[in-house]
Amino acid sequence: MKLDKATIEKLAEHLENCQLQAKDTTKITDDYPDMDWDDAYAIQNMIKARKLARGLKLGGLKAGLTSHAKMKQMGVTTPVFGFMTKDYEIADGGDCKTSELIHPKVEPEIAFMTNKPLRGPGCHIAAVLAATEYVIPGIEVIDSRYRDFKFDLKSVVADNTSAARYVVGGQKLDVKNADLRTTGIVLEKNGQPVVFGAGAAVLGHPAAAIAMLANHLGAMGEEIPAGTLILSGGITEAVAVAAGDTVTLKVQGMGSTSMRFV
Ligand code: 0L1
Ligand code: MG
User: What CATH number does the domain containing 87 carry?
Assistant: First the structure.
């Protein structure tokens, strides 16, 4: 690690304040160009610790930048991992307040619910499927705290991978009854289809993103506990939204989920 504990705490406080005040900032690597991956995840973990210390509960985990469309949109090549607290959750069909966000975008995703712990190294798609209670449509709202979404990967990891809000809903599907590679999705904005895709856009199979997350955590001696909701990553590029927009995600065999931006 290149940063000391005080700097990690200072940067976590800064980024969390930007989130809570819906205020943007320049990317932190501008001031700390030598920070490494361990520093970036340490800042993210410090943000999580700050929230849990205030009594917030963990809502789930996420993989991000897992599709070529997303990687191309952001000019990067590596998936990243983050968390959501329970207060990020929007009820299915519910309202998402844009006054609490900087410049929200939505991503169509497939969410997994685990029923067994998953631990790397060596976690793979079959292990994930064997530990999946169900999959369900999920829309992630990302809201980078960096001005104009201009960041590098270490800055975005520190900023908890732009996590802001999420909704899950529709029909829970047993993975035994689906081939998630060929599962089709349509994201509609205000009733108009805007992006389309299939599960294979996420690393060839959305469960591969969950396996990567388990292997990432395993390298730090951690695991994905049973009963964890995990967003496997945007199947398409992210779509910008504003107050007045309604977005609906339809997933083949799993119905739909939606939210309204107010
Ligand atoms: O969930 C995601 O794929 C977002 C990762 C962070 C990059 C971004 O803000 O687009
Ligand atoms: Mg996402």
Answer: 3.90.850.10
Is residue 102 lining ligand 1, measured as CB closer than 6 Å?
Answer: no
SS3 217: helix
Rounded distance between C-alpha atoms, residue 181 and residue 207, angstroms: 9
Q: Is the CB of 79 under 6 A from ligand 1?
A: no
Decide if 48 is inside a domain.
no
User: Domain limits at 227?
Assistant: 57-261
Assigned domain for 92 exists: yes
In a domain, 190, yes or no: yes
Q: How many domains does the chain have?
A: 1
- What tokens does 86 get? 């329970």
What is the full per-residue pLDDT of the chain (262 aa) written as tens digits?
999 999 999 999 999 999 999 999 999 999 999 999 999 999 999 999 999 999 999 999 999 999 988 888 888 888 999 999 999 999 999 999 999 999 999 999 999 999 999 999 999 999 999 999 999 999 999 999 999 988 899 999 999 999 999 999 999 999 998 999 999 999 999 999 999 999 999 999 999 999 999 999 999 999 999 999 999 999 999 999 999 999 999 999 999 999 999 9
The token pair that represents 256 in the structure block = 């739909």
Q: Is the CB of residue 144 below 6 angstroms from any atom belonging to ligand 1?
A: yes
Packed helices 5-21 and 37-53: angle between N→C axes, nearest 10 degrees? 60
